[in-house]
């Protein structure tokens, strides 16, 4: 985890950007973000780049990256931890040839990077990068 920004606005929430999709990285992100959510924070996570296969349904994940980790249960637990929303970056989905219907149920939807930066990252009290 790399802490990019922290301010005194506890009510503003947490924004995390996940660019790596290996098991260790996703599990570390999920553990840290779940703890923050359980403590009352609003958590918004954007998966992009190499993180995309980790949030895909099994048959899609295996097709686009046969070595990608299966972290479905980890992400389901995180999504259920409180005010947590997981998103897939629309441009990264395009690069991988993946559509919104190919994503795990834990993923709330597809967002553009600019919208995530403007809506979620800009007002966050903590910005995390994985």
Structure report:
With 130 residues, this protein is of the alpha/beta class. It has a single domain (2-129), classed as 3-Layer(aba) Sandwich (Hypothetical Protein Ychn, Chain: A). Helices cover 36% and strands 23% of the residues. It has five helices and six strands; from the N terminus they run ββαβααβαβαβ. The protein has a six-stranded mixed sheet with strand order 1-6-2-3-4-5. The longest helix is centred in the first third of the chain and has 16 residues, at 23-38. It is globular. The termini are close together. Mean pLDDT is 92; it is low at 1-11.
Summarize the structure.
The longest helix has 16 residues, at 23-38.
């Amino acid at each position: 985890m790399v802490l990019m920004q922290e301010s005194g606005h506890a009510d503003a929430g947490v924004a995390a950007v996940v660019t790596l999709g290996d098991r260790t990285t996703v599990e570390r992100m999920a553990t840290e973000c779940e703890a923050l959510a359980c403590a009352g924070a609003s958590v918004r996570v954007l998966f992009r780049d190499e993180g995309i296969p980790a949030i895909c349904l099994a048959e899609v994940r295996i097709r686009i990256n046969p070595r990608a980790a299966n972290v479905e249960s980890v992400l389901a637990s995180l999504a259920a931890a409180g005010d947590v929303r997981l998103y897939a970056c629309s441009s990264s989905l395009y690069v991988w040839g993946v559509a919104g219907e190919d994503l795990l149920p834990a993923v709330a939807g597809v967002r553009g990077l600019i919208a995530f930066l403007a809506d979620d990252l800009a007002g966050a009290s903590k910005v995390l990068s994985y």
